[in-house]
User: Fold this.
Amino acid sequence: MSEINWKKDKPNENGIHFVAIKYGEGAGTFDFSEWDGDKWITEFEGVVIAYLTLEELVKNIPFEWPESCNKAEKLKSLSSTSDDMWDEM
Assistant:
């Protein structure tokens, strides 16, 4: 697992961020929350103590595509006419 570089300042960009919300000593949660340029808009009573942009979140988690690919086709070599690129189905 890679270390996450949480940001603790105010975000530069408005929008949805991945946040750490603290309720008290030793209690908290992770959630998505909107920064409106002035404050966090959240349904929780806790305090947002750190955040990541969605781009940073995706970079830190090794996501895999949710489907497997069962069939791979070799590309046809290109010829002088575009008619050769298509197959009738």
Notes: The longest helix spans residues 54-60. The beta strands are 15-24, 27-35, 40-41, 47-53. The chain is about 10% helix and 30% strand.
